[in-house]
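Hey team,

Sharing the DH domain-containing protein run so nobody has to redo it. Sequence (388 residues) first:
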Amino acid sequence: MKPINEPILVPNEDTQGQREQHSEKQSKLSVSDATECEEDSAIQKREYVIRELVETERDYVRDLRLVAEGYIALMRDPDCDVPMPEDLRCGKDKMVFGNMEAIYEWHRDFFLKALERCILHPEELGPLFKRYERKLHMYVVYCQNKPVSEYIVSEHIDTYFEELRQKLGHKLQLCDLLIKPVQRIMKYRLLLSDLYKYTERAHLTAEMETLRQALHVMQVVPKAANDMMDVGRLQGFDGKITAQGKLLLHGPLACCEGTSGASFKGKELQVFLFEQNIIFSEAVGKKTQFTNPVYIYKNHIQVNKMSLEEKVEGREEKDGSGGAVDLFCVRSTDPRKPSLAYVCQAMTGELRAEWLHNLRTILQTQRDFLKAIQSPIAYQKELTKDPL
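Structure output:
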């Protein structure tokens, strides 16, 4: 065997350090490339969402046109060979469509064009929804009329409106077109939510605040619209609903007339808490293809003549998680209605907390208002008093 005469090469410290630096640099470049790739992907997905928003808006305007330039135009035409039923005359025909024609004209002439501009200028999208916040409340008005519209259409869907549909050559029935504004106002929030998500991933921080504001607008407006649809289904209340102030909360509660929970057998009522009144109603009818249940008025208690008992002794039902849901009681303090009271039970502990929070808040507001009227100087001093 030949002896090994060649020296064994050992890398010096400088060479090893250079390799480590090179490796670290390569690693940083890889992370940077990955981040850039993710941002590019997010920007591309953002563009898809904007295009989907614009394309679906065009489809929506086409659907609105079928109503405005189809049904409405025919029903206004005195020479139309499909005679309008007698009971649709005297303004009932206008209640079928509400303010849909105004919605159509605004989307056609303004909103669609503004959205189309956002394809090339996506930074304008967030401010656009904020700028038109008040205009979008047209949908609240539309939804408030929707229950009345549903009822009228259901009475003629197989006769008069079917004849008009065939004459117009439409595939969709009128009720399918009338639900489009309700669906569209909900869709905006979903698309804006996706847009915000991809904007955040693309690190386009300058646009995130305006998109956050747009998202807020499109949470508030659909909720108000949905609330108004439920309020529009309330029948038999003698007062003017629009005079009851803001709708604070509504939903089903198990209720029993009286103040005792000892033998509580609650019946599910639909309860509406407004700033001025709490209204108890009963759902009648079932949801069908053309109609929804209506709420028949049972009773009401004026908020400024109401007291709250947060815990009533009695039988407690279990909520979905297995816990007990306490009863609470609202009663009238009106001397003309001394026995008017309802023991109530929410479906879950969380809903109970929400009802109590809103009831406490509105009662405190009433107390503050009364104090301000009766002792304005003392009330002002209390407001300006420094907290401890």
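The CA atoms of residues 50 and 122 lie 8 Å apart.

Ping me if you want the raw files.
A.
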